[in-house]
Amino acid sequence: MTDVVTMDKIVALCKRRGFIFPSSEIYGGVGSTYDYGHYGVLLKTNVKNEWWRAMVGERDDVVALDSAIIQHPKVWEASGHLAGFTDPLVDCRTCKLRFRADHIDVSACGKKPSKHPGEHSECDLTEARDFNLMFETTVGPVKEEGATVYLRPETAQGIFINFKNVLQFSRKKPPFGIAQVGKSFRNEITPGNFVFRTREFEQMEMEFFVPPAEAERWFAYWLAERERWYTELGIRPDHLRMRAHDADELSHYSSGTSDVEYRFPIGWSELEGIANRGDFDLKAHAEHARDKLEYVDTASGERYVPHVIEPAAGADRATLAFLVDAYDEEELENETRTVLRLHPRLAPVKVAVLPLVKKDGQPEVAKELYADLRRRMQAEYDEGGSIGKRYRRQDEIGTPWGVTVDHQTLEDRTVTLRDRDSLAQERFPIDALGDELERRLRAAWTSPKLAA
Ligand code: GAP
What is the pLDDT confidence band of residue 447, given thresholds at 50, 70 and 90? Predict the structure, then answer.
């Protein structure tokens, strides 16, 4: 089927319905920084909750962590970020724009009609120089006397420096993992494409510590697991692929990385990276902290530095992918219906309760039902405007079910249950509704866009 989605449509829908909007707008905005509104918060929270469920809730071998954003500066020395977390930066002396030297062929020159930097006769590009992506700040009241620290550019290092603590308190032995969700910061030279690349974003990372001989097997295992997570949450399999990094793309710590890529409207792009980090991080921190970061088997006396398999995802990028994959339009009663065909578990609101008219006792029954349902799931009550308009509003935010209370409800305690995707409407006993919706929320789901 032809996909009607474009990045502009997603940006417009997100602004119109208050999912995501430019930050600091009343001051003219700060480039590539976004705020999440009500439905955006609910959606991204659902994405993170599904990640926690898959990583920790449904497993016995992964524990949770929430480490600090500001860590000892030596962390970044040991990790290699101070020396090597750089992008090659090129300035144009004429238009004062900055570009990533390795992205020149996809960057836009400031001088029209030329396309790429360097193509216009007035372009005056500097040589590429390394630009460290970490944000610096100072700890202490006096800037000059304070210590320079960095906002973490990844959540992963907070996990490595806590390896010993977790090993001690969690009673785990390799293979086991530590999972963390939180904000990371990168002073990207060219952020862009909405929340795809921003300077402040949330990561969902898990470091899985394994006996060295098992690293390859676990690497393959996590590739399959992560692919499954996205498709079970409704991402169409033909819009998802795994791409192994070539040797010259590998990060300094990695002996093998595969990206989970999604077919965004901007083309196939990284959604998540899965890396075999070997023993690089634990050894580096052990050396810099003059400590031992290893596993000792008390029964056999065997000791070794575990190898690490890391599935590293972005919560904002995943949220964007789910939005893009769900976006659909269809002609209905001479109007275009915009609908987000989100997996019900990801949908910001699960059910909308709507009295058909604002009289005859219908609002009272509807409010009673709403009070019951919202104890079980995210629900919304709406009595404003025509029923058609209210359905459209819910379609646009991806609410899978609409429940209408009408005159028949007052006679036989049944309601109309409307399905967002098929538009089927059925009469349903009001007292069985909560259980039925909970059952549907637990059920397997595939995108109706697949069948179209
Ligand atoms: N610890 C490994 C690591 O951080 P990464 O590939 O640099 O690996 C992991 O980042 C994920 O974090 C990416 O796949 C992406 O989803 C997300 N991410 C990275 N930089 C981002 C940015 N500037 N804006 C939004 N998400 C970003």
Answer: very high
Q: CB-hemisphere CA count at 13 Å for 92?
A: 21
- Orientation of helix 38-52 relative to helix 315-326, angle to 10°: 110
Pocket of ligand 1 (CB under 6 A): 154, 156, 186, 188, 197-198, 201, 203, 205, 270-273, 312-314, 316-317
| For range 299-321, the mean pLDDT | 97
Nearest protein CA to atom 22 of ligand 1, as residue? 197
**Contact status, residue 349 vs residue 379, Cβ threshold 8 Å:** yes
Mutation probe of ligand 1 site: the residue of 161, 317, 320, 322 with most atoms within 8 A of C-beta: 317
Ligand 1 atom closest to the CA of 197, numbered from 1: 24
**Residue range 157-199, pLDDT digits in tens:** 999 999 999 999 988 999 999 999 999 999 998 888 999 999 9
How far, in whole angstroms, is CA 222 from its chain's centroid?
18
Q: Give the predicted TM-score (pTM) of the model.
A: 0.95
- Which residues, other chains included, contact 282 with Cβ-Cβ below 8 Å and sequence gap of 6+? 160, 163, 293, 294, 305, 306, 308
Please tell me the distance between residue 210's alpha carbon and the centre of ligand 1 in angstroms. 23
